[in-house]
Design a protein that fits this description.
By secondary structure, the protein is mostly beta strands. A three-stranded antiparallel beta sheet has the order 3-4-5, with no helix packed on it. Strands 1-2 form a two-stranded antiparallel sheet.
Length: 86
Amino acid sequence: MSVTASAVGSHTVSIKTKKPQPIMPALMGTMTIVSPNTQEAKGVRNPQGTGPYVFGTWTPGQSVTLKRFSGYWGDKPEVENVNYVF
């Protein structure tokens, strides 16, 4: 899917797709922000974020493991490790 975004105001972004995307609101909930140098077909295998957990391991199609980030600026999460299994 090809998507372009541009700022049209201090609090407004215009998002355009080449083809209609009726589930765009749902897709927005899973949108990632990556370097323009990221190859779309490969994605990112070592994501960086600002949340209470850091990326641990990823087995594509099986699971993702996150670890509590000791340097997180907010409240310390009660759970030390998180494992999402699909």
